[in-house]
Amino acid sequence: MDSRPPAAGISHYALFGEQAGDDDPEFVHIEEIHTRSSLYDWQITPHRHRRMFQFLYMVSGSAEVRLDQSSHRLAGPGAVCIPGGVVHAFSFEPGTQGWVVTVSELLLIDARFRRSRRLLEPLVREPRMLSFADNPDGANLIAATLEEMLREFQWPRPGRAFMFDWMIRIVLMTAVRHLESQTPSTAGIDRQRERYTRFRQLIEDHYREHWPVGAYADALAISQARLNRMCKALAGKGAGELIQDRLALEAQRHLVYTSASTSMIAYELGFQDPAYFSRFFKRRVGMAPGRFRAAKMAEPFPH
């Protein structure tokens, strides 16, 4: 699989057609296929999502699917699994029915789900196309779960974030089980993407310990220079930036979802000096922690 940066003209979107940042603490987005594709004559041009995993599921209809440099035809019921950084495009048959779920990769490798993330690795390690034509039970379970996810997304209720956590894992574990039941793919595993996935898992395990880049490189048995080249190729940022992004993102979670003071959050995230934490947060997010919390609390329904 070609892991080089995409050629000029390939867009980098959090969601196709939108310029919203993909570091936003809103970790899950779901919509029906026709919602966006019908606006573009059912043609979604080549683009990619950095640090975002996408799961497209077709109940009916079909699509020509481009994944990096290869093209494939898939008919519903079927799924496409797209790890972050993979260039993808779709040419849908008009009237195709289904859903597109976009999830922060951080959600899939979160330490809270350490037991399940190894099971999900086959889906986030490389692009996958899965036909469910011979698996009606799996197809029905995925369709019913995604339909309920869309209702949750459209009508916010208490515990929505937890519902998303559970339902996305139902969908992906159903896909993993289906994948394991199929004939193993003859395509070679992209070693660089596999190592990058391992790096993101290490960040999840150790970001609170403030490991330096060298410690991650040692754990992966590669040089710091090679680690940085890999991260820039697949995520557009160096290893140190990705580590700091993870710290800043967790700080945002605490500020939005807890009433802990800035000092308590600083110590929770491994900072010895709350003042340094505040400077770090402002540098990464663009505003002081207190101001960020106040802005989020003023929103009608913080995600």
In words, what does this structure look like?
The chain is α+β, with helices and mostly antiparallel strands. The protein has 2 domains: 11-181, Regulatory protein AraC (Jelly Rolls, Sandwich), CATH 2.60.120.280; 191-297, Homeodomain-like (Arc Repressor Mutant, subunit A), CATH 1.10.10.60. Helices cover 48% and strands 18% of the residues. It contains 12 helices and 10 strands. A 5-stranded mixed β-sheet has the order 1-3-8-5-6, with no helix packed on it. The two termini are 35 Å apart. 33% of the residues are buried.
What is the CATH architecture term of the largest domain? Sandwich
How many strands in all? Answer: 10
How many distinct folded domains? 2
Overall shape: globular
Strand line-up across the major sheet: 1-3-8-5-6
Average predicted local confidence, pLDDT: 81
CATH top level label of the largest domain: Mainly Beta
What is the CATH homologous superfamily assignment of the largest domain?
A: Regulatory protein AraC
- Tally of helical runs: 12
Strand content: 15-25%
N-to-C series of helices and strands: EEHEEEEEEEHHEHHHHHHHHH
Major sheet details: 5 strands, mixed
Instruction: Please estimate the helix content.
Output: 40-55%
Radius of gyration from CA coordinates: 20 Å
Helix/sheet category: alpha+beta
What is the first-to-last residue Cα distance?
Answer: 35 Å
